[in-house]
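Ticket #4471: structure output looks truncated?

Reporter: J.K.
Steps to reproduce: submitted the chain below (76 residues) through the standard prediction queue, then opened the result file.
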Amino acid sequence: MDEKTYSIREFSRRYRLPSSTLRYYEEVGLLTDVIHTDNGQRLYTDKHVERMDGILCFKRAGMPISKMQDYYHYEE
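Returned output as attached by the reporter:
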């Protein structure tokens, strides 16, 4: 079965975040294993949806990005 994927535009709209924020989260290791197509497009999966839900929950609770990085590093 093929996994549902989302473009950066779809993901950005879903979470009401600029695409630059999504790229930043990938750069700092909060969003991992983002698919990059041959033409450079980013694709997100349902795994990323779950991760982003967690990131935003931590963000609302006031957790700094460095602590989120630690959490997800230890989770893996």
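Triage note (M.O.): checked the attachment and the full token line is present. The two ends are 25 Å apart (CA to CA).
Status: closed, working as intended.
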